[in-house]
Every structure is written in C-alpha cells, then in structure tokens.
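Before relying on records like the one below, remember that each one covers exactly one chain. Contacts with other chains, cofactors or solvent are not represented anywhere in the record.
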Amino acid sequence: MLQAELNTGRIVRVRQGVFALPTTDPDIIAAAEHGGALTCRRALRLHGVWVLDDDPQIHVWLGGRGRSHHTDCKCTGHYHSGTAGLGLAPIEDVLVHAYHCASDEVFFAALESALVQRKVRRAGLARIRARIPSHDRWLVDLARDDADSGLESLLRLRVHLLGITLECQVEIPTVGRVDFVIAGRLILEADGRENHESGTKRHDDRVRDAAASVLGYETLRFDYAQIVHDWQSVEAAIIAAVVRLRERD
C-alpha cells in the first residue's frame, strides 16, 4: 500500500521511515531530512507572522537530545529543550528560538504580529516570557496586540529605545486613527508598501495630514526603506521634532 502511494506520487519519501505529501513546503521537508522541525525565521513566515528579514539557511529544531541526520549541509541546528518532532515547529517554540537566534527586533516584531493575529494568546505570552532571560523580558512586556504592521512594531521599539514615550493607535477627531503620538502634538506614521504603491492611499494620507495640521499637530511619515535601511535619518528627524516641541513649551 505504501509503495503504491509512492509509485503514484501521492506521497514522497523524505528519508527512511519518513514520508510527506508532495505539496509539503520544501523547507519543512528539508528540516525533516535533517531530523527535526523547521524553526526560526522561515518558520515564522510559514506561520503567517511578519519577519524583518530572511535567513539564507534552514533552521532545524532538534530538541534537547536530538540527532542530526545530515552531515554535509548548510542547515542550522537548534538544540533547545523539548520534543521537536517533525514538520513546522509550534509558534511559541519558534518565537523563543528566534529570540535566541535572531535580533531583538526580529523577535519583537514577530511577537507583536503573532499577538495581533491571535496566534499567541495571554497564556502563551506568559510561557514565552518565562522562557527568555529575565533581562530581556521587557520585550514581551512592551509587546501589544494592536500594531497594524511589523514595520510599526519596529518603529515603536526603536523610538522606545531612544527614551521617548509614545501613545499608540490614537484616535483623533477629523483625522482618524494614527500610529503614534508624542507629547500630544507630534504624529508618527509608519507607511507600508501599500501606501507607496497606491496613489489613492497617498492622497488620503495627505488629507489626513492636513486635517491634523489644522488641529496643531506635526506629522512625520516614514516608509519601509527609511525605517529599515536609513534609520539614522529617521532618528534625527524624530529627535529634532521632539526638541522643537519642548522649545515651544
């Protein structure tokens, strides 16, 4: 029966005793060939979570006592405690692995993305918090479940590290909901690719900015390329605007 399924292509052999459907994601199959479950950034993407950047290598969770079945490959093994199994690692485990393997920014943005999509609930958040070192648990405490995008999460984390207090997802009459407000007068907006590509969206944003100006707000609007690749300029603009606000008081 098994051989017949193989012959017809309804299943494929991954390695001895391990089989998969032909529609299985190739990264998951590669992880199974290695002897474990797919984890870290590629796994976050398969979970539908926003990821700051990609990793050229496949990361495989092998469990605390796992054994790799590859001897000559470019996979990265994760030997965190637990039973890894095969397939796609559970989202809570993947987030913890990403914390240990990637940057704080990758972890934080992915965590907020998972919270927004309800892929991680309150109990799961507590478990994740308990599994990372105490000195970095503030990242979990800072995370919210109302971020509109991973880009917004990244901006908030970086501004927080500058020591600037942000109000998040603020509703302003005649303007609508804005990403952040600083000191009650400075609006920060993180514009994703849809803002850049859509002429209608850009027009709507200009209308909102004009309405905010009537109410006495200054608006700083940054896109993906600025936040991710030119943060120094973004930081300088924010700090200069905050200084101007303080000088007016």
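The chain is about 45% helix and 15% strand.
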